[in-house]
Design brief:
The complex is a heterodimer of chains A (about 110) and B (about 120). Chain A is mostly beta strands. Chain A has no helices and 12 strands. Chain A is about 0% helix and about 50% strand. In chain B, the strands form 2 sheets. In chain B, strands 2, 4, 5, 6, 9, 10 and 11 form a 7-stranded mixed beta sheet that branches. A 4-stranded antiparallel beta sheet of chain B has the order 1-3-8-7, with no helix packed on it. Classes of the chains: A mainly beta (about 110), B mainly beta (about 120).
Chain lengths: ~110, ~120
C-alpha cells in the first residue's frame, strides 16, 4: 500500500518570506500522480499544484513550486512571497492514476506571521 | 474549474437514525466519485470509491453495511450512514474527477454530529 508522510505538523513563516513544506511517499509504482492540497478553515479542499511522476520537470503555479525527487520519493512544496491568505492546512497526496482515490499525508499547518 | 456540490453542509441526528449525504457534480459527468472521512485535526481517509451503475469499492476496515453508497447517475452519488452512533460523528467529503488521471474536485464537506 502507498503511504504519504508529512513530517512537519506545523510551520510558521513571516509574510513575504519563502517556506518549504516536506513530503515523502512510498510506492512500488513507476507511474503515479502527486498533489498538494490546501484546506483553509472553511475546510474546502483546494488544489495547489500537481505533478505527474513521468515528468522530470518540476511543476510550478505562480508562487507555488515543487521539488520532485523521484528516486528519493520526495515531493516538497515551496511557497514564495508568502501571503496571509496562504495560512491553511496543506496536505500532500498520492494517486496511482486511473480511478484511484487519493492517499493523503497527515498535513502541515502553515501559519503566516504578519 | 469543475464544481462539486455536497449537501447538507452540516447535520445533527439522533443515535440510531440514518443520514443521507448527497454529492453532485454540477457541470460535468463523473463515472467515479470518492468518499472521504476526516476526523478533527486529522487527515482525509478514503472510505470508498463510488462507481456509476455498479457497486462501490470500500477500503479495508470500512463497513459497507454501515456506509451505504449509491451512484445512480453520472452526476450524483449518495452516502447513507445507517444506524448512526456518536462515533460516526465526523466530517465527510466527496470528490469527483473530470476524467481518468485528472484533477479531483472536492465538495465542501458535511459535518455530521450524532447525539
Amino acid at each position: 500500500a502507498q503511504t504519504v508522510t508529512q513530517s512537519q505538523p506545523e510551520m510558521s513563516v513571516q509574510e513575504a518570506e519563502t517556506v518549504t513544506l516536506s513530503c515523502t511517499y512510498d510506492t512500488s509504482e513507476s507511474d503515479y500522480y502527486l498533489f498538494w492540497y490546501k484546506q483553509p478553515p472553511s475546510r474546502q479542499m483546494i488544489l495547489v499544484i500537481r505533478q505527474e511522476a513521468y515528468k522530470q520537470q518540476n511543476a510550478t503555479e505562480n508562487r507555488f513550486s515543487v521539488n520532485f525527487q523521484k528516486a528519493a520519493k520526495s515531493f516538497s512544496l515551496k511557497i514564495s512571497d508568502s501571503q496571509l491568505g496562504d495560512a491553511a492546512m496543506y496536505f500532500c497526496a498520492y494517486s496511482g492514476g486511473g480511478a484511484d482515490g487519493l492517499t493523503f499525508g497527515k498535513g502541515t499547518h502553515l501559519i503566516i506571521q504578519p | 474549474g469543475a464544481v462539486v456540490s455536497q449537501h447538507p453542509s452540516w447535520v445533527i441526528c439522533k443515535s440510531g437514525t440514518s443520514v443521507k449525504i448527497e454529492c453532485r457534480s454540477l457541470d460535468f459527468q463523473a463515472t467515479t466519485m470518492f468518499w472521504y472521512r476526516q476526523f478533527p485535526k486529522q487527515s482525509l481517509m478514503l472510505m470508498a470509491t463510488s462507481n456509476e451503475g455498479s457497486k462501490a469499492t470500500y477500503e479495508q476496515g470500512v463497513e459497507k453495511d454501515k456506509f451505504l453508497i449509491n451512484h445512480a447517475s453520472l452526476t450524483l452519488s449518495t452516502l447513507t450512514v445507517t444506524s448512526a452512533h456518536p462515533e460516526d460523528s465526523s466530517f465527510y467529503i466527496c470528490s469527483a474527477c473530470l476524467g481518468v488521471n485528472t484533477e479531483a474536485f472536492f465538495g465542501q464537506g458535511t459535518r455530521l454530529t450524532v447525539v
